[in-house]
Amino acid sequence: MTVLKDDKAGGNPSSICSKGTATNLCYLSKNLFDFGLYTVSQYFFQEQKYLSYELNYHLCKENENYQLLATDCGQQTLKYVDRCFQAFFKLLFTKQEAWLSYRRRNQLNDYLNQLASLN
Distance of CA 99 to CAs 46, 74, 87, 92, Å? Predict the structure, then answer.
């Protein structure tokens, strides 16, 4: 068992959190993360737009995993989904810029036009 201490009570245990309870909360948080990730990705594939945290929150707050978690924990999980997708889009943008830069640097010369100007 893990003992949670209350800072105001001078170190006296305020509540005891069993291993099963912590495992259950982690499981609910994982399920909410998966659901949030699914909603954002489906919205992106259908609308070709990014689903922000605020809109995703309104879609996910009806989910049973969100309702069973404490509100703070559920919101932090959805904010983590938002940060993950922002990082994903930043990576895609960086990859596109690098690819375009590579193509500009390594373009094949226009040999056909050069041959035509020689004749």
Answer: 26, 38, 18, 10
Buried b (16+ CB within 10 A) or exposed e, 30-47: ebbbebbbebbeebeeee
Q: Is the pTM here over 0.85, yes or no?
A: no
Dist CA 56 CA 52 (whole Å): 6
Q: How is the chain split into domains, by residue range?
A: 2-88
Per-residue pLDDT band for 111 (boundaries 50, 70, 90) equals low
Those residues with Cβ within 8 angstroms of residue 82's Cβ, 6 or more apart along the chain or in another chain: 40, 52, 53, 56
